[in-house]
Amino acid sequence: MSDSTKTLCPYCGVGCGLEVSPPAAANRETNRDSQGNPIWKVRGDRSHPSSQGMVCVKGATVTESIDQNRLLYPMMRDSLDEPFRRASWEEALDAIVSRMGSILNSTGPDALCLYGSGQFLTEDYYLAQKLFKGILGTNNFDTNSRLCMSSATAAYFYSLGSDGPPCCYEDLELTDCAFIIGSNTAECHPIIFNRLRKHHKQNHHVKMIVVDPRRTTTAEAADLHLAIRPGTDIDLLNGIAHLLLRWGKMNVDFIEDCTAGFSTYAEVIQHYPPEVVAERCGISVDDLITVAKMWADSKRVLSMWTMGLNQSSEGTAKVSSLINLHLITGQIGKPGSGPFSLTGQPNAMGGREVGGLAHLLPGYRLVKNDQQRTEVEQFWKLPAGKISSVPGRSAWEIITGLETGEVEFLWIAATNPAVSMPDLERTKAALKRSPFTVYQDAYYPTETAAFAHVLLPAAQWGEKTGTMTNSERVVTLCPAFRKPLGEARADWEIFAEVGRRLGYPEQFAYTHSSEIYDEFVQLTSDRLCDQTGICHERLKKEGPIQWPEPIKNAKLNTKKERGSSLSTSKRLYTDLRFSTPDGRARFVAKHSRGLAEPPDPNFPFVLTTGRLYGHWHTQTRTGRIAKISQMHPQPFIEIHPRDAAKLAIQENDWVEVRSRRGTSRFPAKVTQTISPGTVFVPIHWGDLWADDAEANSVTQSASCPDSLQPELKACAVQLVPINAHLISEEYVLPETPETETQPKALSSPLRV
Fold first, then answer.
1. Which of 217, 256, 572, 690 is within CB 3.0–4.6 Å of 186 for a Cys-Cys bond?
2. Rounded to the nearest 5 degrees, what angle is found at the Cα of 403, between the Cα atoms of 400 and 405?
3. pLDDT confidence band for 553 (50 / 70 / 90)
4. Residue 314 and residue 592 in contact, taking contact as beta carbons nearer than 8 Å
5. How much is the pLDDT for 559?
6. What is the DSSP string of 597-650?
């Protein structure tokens, strides 16, 4: 293949368009990585509507990891104490189907669980849904989106009647007030931030507000940075609403015509006067008044958030409290305004559309809803009652099910829970108890592979064809531009083959992923996420398409025609009618409960966690890219100078972080970018990449009662300085040769 291929970056939910071309072509020098190996060339796709040709360091270097440390063929073992042995696909699939069949006959389908990923293609997601929730009759299919976006999903349902971000990226350049809370957008969603930052610089009337206990790169660019105490987000949001109500800065017509529940909300926010809120949040009354005035004086307020709100024991309430501010001022459904969740993973949005959480079904349906469940049963030609009305196990409930023995079969695909789950030592102990674990991934080794009985080699990005949906609801076709390495297969092909072997050949008789997508979109008909007008062929011809895009739109092939003659919009709710039974948005009135685990004399600091610009999740890809490893050579802990002085900690001193669940240790980074009483560590380092530097060894499993998303963003810890001499002795680098199964990058950057 000599021509370039247009595709989508497989990292965050921004959904940047890429053009990928082969390492070598006529009259062109061969493209090589820093070690001289030929690699596919990457550049930004200027025609992609979301990223406009821009690309961050992760997208620019993504092809450097494609060939490194790949899982090339199935491997098996009878127990975790044994080494893996090479197996054929026939042997591996026979073992999986035999174990599943045995459990179905003895215990029943609820002993089976599948834990997937926001890095699936939509087609992968859909077949996993159909296999587990439809054919097997268990809703025990959850994904790592539970750790990422489930609070936003729940809040959209509660407040607006359906999941689905109502905004688009064009709003970044139309807003006059950007309110960013719980998001280091500049590092975690850099292309979005680039667009906003350019608009902010060019228009002096445009305000940018950032709410974060850290003075991040994002906060540095803000007109106002509110370094609130962790866990006080609802206090702040209710405090802003209190002032808007006091000043009469409400959109009364919108509230009366388009919302419900305002009177209850008004009573709740009466309890959040400025003096009380400022004291709880650790900010000044003047700053609180300033941010409320900015909101009140703005005609187009765009709010954005990610994990800082979502990863909380009151995550859904936090997001709904933010949406309340848009409802009280009528700031939704019009250009430049609205509540805009910035999706964490490349296809977490696509996963939500197909029902990629244990309580959802395709087309933004709920398993608890009798009518919606029946619609899916009839479409899949299942007998009535086949799909369970009981939500399946969430990610953490899978772990507790392993502890109790109720989970007898665990299938993990495209994610690394042995690093990313909370309360990590408990998680690892539960994974060790699993009677039978299948792990499906593109790379080996990973931390989770140590807990598997069967390893299945998966084709990764660039080796399979399918679709992804980004944060602004734009669907992009991601074509295969190379053959899978070794014996790797696409995730959807593996799910389909297991379905056929379980006795359902007609339900899984797909020969191409386009057939799967064509089937899926029929379940979106007349739903908010209607994609019936989209297909692989149209995406290939016309490029990315934003939903809603019903079938009638497919007849109009040019953007000019679509824009001029159809009522669809880049934004949802432009008619101010919402997806609730009465068409009204809901005020969700909540009091602040604070942290699930507040600091105390024994554990006096609040630990918060997050991403770094160059790395992605647990380094399965980025840890194998030299440029990124050099950019972020080691983990660290950020400590405010005041706290460091009290503990006699200096720059680069080793610090042990202790919680009620476990310990980790990091070199100190003494900085004023973190608030006093709070410390920060990055999430990316598992035990393959560094020793005792796992952030989630200390985090907790307490979760939001509505979204079941764990409070990964905050826990109480103590800090203990460690003798540098002892660390030096313990972390001496052994002189052992590298093996074929150990990545070169696994020589720990922490060892001295």
1. 217
2. 110
3. confident
4. yes
5. 47
6. S---SSS-EEEEEE--SS--TTSTTGGG-HHHHHHS-S--EEE-HHHHHHTT--
